[in-house]
Amino acid sequence: MSTLANLPPLSRVIAAHGLSARKSLGQNFLLDLNLTARIARQAGDLSACDVLEIGPGPGGLTRGLLMEGARHVLAVEKDARCLPALQEIAEAAPGRLDVVHGDALEIDPLAHLTPPIRIVANLPYNVGTELLIRWLTPPDWPPFWQSLTLMFQREVAERIVAAPGSKAYGRLALLAQWRCDARIVMTLPPGAFTPPPKVSSAVVHLTALPAPRYPADPRVLERVVAMAFNQRRKMLRAALRGLAPDIEDRLLAAGIKPTDRAETVGLEQFCALARGLAEG
Ligand code: SAM
Fold this sequence. Notes:
The protein is an alpha/beta fold. The chain is about 35% helix and about 20% strand.
């Protein structure tokens, strides 16, 4: 019987199961098991956690997570061609890996997971940002997960950790940093993947804070931030005009100059503005 340590190399798995990468599914595979183990380690001690992995593909990161001691992994994969390869990993780690065939945007993973839960994934670029925003914007906080350890295109990773005043600063930075600690923990060149993408990638680690950094109603804050950055070159008194007839006064009350642009305004001020608007 196979064990995790004597499963075949990933290049052989890919050849044996005919897993030629499909662009439409955002398939850029990691075949170096030292690298996938390093990514798994960025998620911390997983021995007492269930892990949700989106898009396991041929299972390089899945193997890393199991080898690094994850208690249990739930892997959600859209491409049916990958299922036999993932089944082989499940057999080599009895009772520790469940594979669900389906679209991560449609499936409710909670039915298959026991807290505490961490999410670790080399995300498909076409749904990565949408999944992140969903994980960051549940109605209640703390969320169902303790941490997210996610591979993105480097440019997206930089938008998650960006500070005010930088070009990358915007909605993603504010949503992430309002309720999480977020940092880039690894960067990877295109050559780390098969096939190599056009751009570099980075792993971001986000830890859910017990409570948001500043109070605000999530729906109001999301709306304010979306409007403010939708027209990021405009002064806020113009970009946010549709929110309230007296928007200039409300900006001033939140400590924001009405002539400021969204990219210079910090999280604390956006939260103050959202609170003011929620009061009516
Ligand atoms: N984790 C593997 C690795 O690191 O080698 C593969 C990563 S690859 C960037 C993204 C994976 O997500 C592919 O296996 C792809 O089939 C899968 N995928 C794409 N869209 C998906 C979706 N909506 N739901 C679940 N999996 C998806």
